[in-house]
Design goal:
Length: 348
């Protein structure tokens, strides 16, 4: 009798377990991963930080400089930038231009672009001393590599990631030169910070000197890295002038020129059990949002990372300026990147 009861109990437990598993698999096609109301994809794994604006200044015409403080701010290296969430919810990226040795303090600078997409106008109008900002920990795709010499080229607000590099290169006793261009002298920030470097720095306002002479770029010896940040025409000219284009490292604060026309492809949304067609003239983000309107996004230019999603299958034609090589192995930004082939499978 006891044996019969034991067998009945085991059989009943097995039936309950199988039923629970079927329900779990039904709720989550990627079981045994946990079933989530919202997939992890599309939400930055980097924790949100809060920092107080302790100083607001204008180092040049149309340029806003903010100093942020918080004991929770992580360490950073020259070339890093942070994602800043503006009061409206827009996410924008700004290079850190202070001193990495100042623990708990970040400095960013924002140029006002009147005909831009609105982020800089909002920052200039609403980011005031005493306000609190949300940002994400720094990331760096513009790392300063160790070298005996460097050539730096900056255009306008492109000086921001270069400033901490100059400090680091000087501290390392490296030989370096900087070409710093801008529309007018009044529009070029941080001239006072550059003055102590003397003739290592060439200040080249376009209304006085014309376009910068890139001879130092062409003369850079083998193994000399060339770092450039500024408008796209400047970066194209620096790349063309360099004896070794592979030695040129670029940091963009606007999208590169549009690549050639795209091709249509299919996206399978594995968690949702849906398939969407992406036309040649639309982004994957646009197509996905037809099926999943709550899919998060912000910049739509491959900079902020809000629409980053995990790729389960298929090759990706990465067109962003944000993801690291490691992140590109299994994720993409829907707003700009596309399929290399005919199909992608996403964790959505």
């Amino acid at each position: 009798m006891r044996r019969a009861l034991a067998v009945t109990a085991v059989a009943g437990a097995a039936w309950v377990t199988r039923r629970a598993l079927r329900r779990r698999i039904g709720r989550s096609p990627l079981w045994p991963l946990p079933a989530l109301e919202h997939p992890v994809s599309g939400h930055s794994p980097r924790r949100a930080l809060r920092a107080l604006i302790v100083s607001r200044t204008e180092p040049a015409q149309g340029v806003l400089q903010l100093t942020l403080e918080s004991p929770d701010l992580p360490a950073w290296t020259p070339g890093a930038h942070v994602d800043v969430t503006l009061p409206s919810g827009l996410v924008r990226q700004y290079s850190l231009c202070g001193d990495p040795a100042d623990a708990g303090r970040y400095t960013i600078a924002i140029r006002l672009v009147e005909d831009g997409r609105g982020g800089s106008r909002e920052a200039h109008a609403q980011l005031v001393e005493g306000a609190e900002l949300e940002l994400r920990p720094p990331r760096n795709r513009f790392e300063l590599v160790p070298a005996a010499s460097y050539v730096f080229v900056a255009g306008g607000i492109g000086i921001t990631p270069i400033l901490p590099m100059l400090r680091a290169a000087t501290a390392a006793d490296a030989d370096w030169t900087l070409l710093y261009g801008g529309r007018t002298l009044d529009s070029m920030p941080f001239l006072d910070d550059l003055a102590p470097y003397g003739d290592r720095v060439s200040v080249l306002p376009e209304d006085e000197t014309g376009l910068p002479d890139l001879a130092p770029v062409a003369a850079a010896g083998p193994g000399t890295p060339v770092y450039c940040c500024g408008p796209e025409p400047l970066m194209a000219a620096v790349t063309a002038a360099a004896a070794d284009p592979a030695a040129v490292r670029l940091e963009r604060f606007a999208p590169a020129a549009e690549p050639g026309p795209g091709r249509a492809f299919t996206v399978e949304l594995r968690r949702s059990g849906r398939v969407v067609e992406v036309a040649a003239d639309e982004s994957a983000l646009t197509a996905v949002r037809r099926e999943l309107p709550d899919t998060p996004y912000s910049c739509e230019q491959g900079f902020c990372g809000t629409c980053q999603h995990r790729v389960l299958a298929g090759g990706v034609d990465h067109r962003d300026e944000l993801l690291t090589d490691q992140e590109r192995e299994d994720s993409m930004l829907l707003c700009v990147s596309r399929a290399e082939g005919d199909r992608l499978v996403l964790d959505l």
